[in-house]
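[step 3/7] inverse_fold.run input=structure_tokens len=372
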């Protein structure tokens, strides 16, 4: 592609991100629900037909046409036509596994993480679009419970387990998930009593750039975010303002648009419990965190920056989707549908997934609701 072609493409993608931000941010009229305002502004989540009732907490969109989703009952789906159809590419014999994270490199190569105690925690990889799968890691330590996974590039990636012997366990790959090794724990700070990660959205371990990675925690006396600048060898821990102090409370999802600017969301996942201060932001790579002035109104498990935006992001949870246009300082609800995780791609598409087979694309529709 010529330099002029690249410039035009980036301008087009930037305009898509700007359009999503502007349409979602438009205020509701008097008496109008957030979802109605979204429809009136011709932008919102558009559900896609998945043909399953699995719950998808793992989501890996590659671009506006290609995306992968991983969920309960060992289910893995893939689309290559923008969600108009999904193909079941689940690994054979995986019906008892709980897939909670998926990382995809393109339409053919993807890595999925199954969670659980002992051997229930596994990593599988495909190089042919899900036609065949290879198990590349099976946890044999009954004390370990893997929660999330992230990749820095097509070769280097990490997975994290709840604390073993008082420290989070980090698994590393240098060959795109074909093989894994447990990293030394000497550079990992001690976990707090009762502290763990949440396998709720595939976003309790996230990366930005070639070496920086962040780990979200809860359950302990405080909800913390751990940061490593050397691909998981050494870590520092910082307290976040999101409440913890209970096994159901803490930081559930992280998103970084670069090495310094990040957003944390969480709360209490129990339906009958409030989630005050469910959002926080950092501008220094996670060394310090500030509570959102107007946080999401309820528990949120997933968060993603809108494409090529410095200030706009989406947060999702079982009771709705919230939008920020000021980098996470203030949020407002723009949809009331249930989703567990959300992610956006470099070419201007955003996707969300959740319970009862729900997978949706964020679309800007021409001519109002009901048109593509």
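[step 3/7] decode complete -> sequence:
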């Amino acid at each position: 592609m010529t330099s002029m072609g690249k410039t035009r493409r980036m301008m087009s993608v930037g305009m898509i991100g700007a359009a999503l931000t502007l349409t979602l941010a438009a205020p509701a009229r008097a008496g109008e629900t957030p979802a109605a305002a979204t429809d009136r502004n011709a932008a919102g989540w558009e559900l896609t037909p998945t043909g399953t009732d699995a719950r998808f907490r793992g989501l890996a969109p590659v671009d506006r046409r290609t995306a992968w989703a991983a969920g309960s009952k060992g289910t893995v789906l893939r689309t290559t036509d923008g969600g108009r159809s999904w193909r079941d590419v689940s690994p054979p014999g995986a019906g008892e596994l709980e897939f909670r994270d998926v990382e995809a490199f393109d339409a053919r190569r993807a890595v999925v993480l199954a969670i659980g105690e002992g051997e229930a925690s596994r990593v599988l990889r495909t190089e042919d679009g899900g036609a065949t799968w290879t198990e590349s890691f099976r946890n044999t330590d009954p004390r370990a419970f893997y929660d999330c996974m992230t990749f820095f590039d097509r070769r280097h990636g990490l997975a994290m387990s709840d604390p073993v012997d008082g420290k989070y366990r980090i698994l590393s790959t240098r060959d795109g998930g074909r093989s894994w090794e447990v990293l030394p724990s000497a550079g990992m700070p001690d976990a707090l009593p009762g502290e763990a990660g949440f396998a709720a959205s595939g976003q309790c371990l996230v990366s930005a750039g070639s070496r920086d990675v962040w780990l979200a925690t809860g359950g302990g006396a405080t909800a913390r975010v751990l940061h490593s600048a050397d691909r998981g060898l050494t870590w520092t821990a910082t307290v976040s303002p999101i409440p913890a102090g209970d096994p159901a409370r803490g930081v559930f999802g992280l998103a970084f648009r670069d090495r310094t600017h990040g957003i944390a969301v969480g709360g209490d996942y129990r339906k009958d419990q409030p989630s005050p201060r469910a959002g926080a932001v950092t501008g220094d790579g996670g060394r310090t965190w500030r509570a959102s002035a107007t946080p999401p109104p309820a528990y949120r498990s997933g968060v993603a920056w809108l494409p090529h935006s410095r200030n706009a992001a989406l947060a999702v949870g079982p009771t709705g989707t919230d939008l920020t246009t000021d980098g996470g300082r203030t949020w407002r609800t723009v949809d009331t549908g249930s989703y567990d995780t959300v992610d956006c791609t470099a070419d201007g598409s955003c996707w969300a997934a959740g319970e009862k087979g729900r997978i949706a694309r964020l679309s800007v529709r021409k001519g109002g609701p009901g048109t593509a």
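[step 4/7] annotate
The first strand starts at residue 43 and ends at 47.
The helical segments are 3-25, 34-40.
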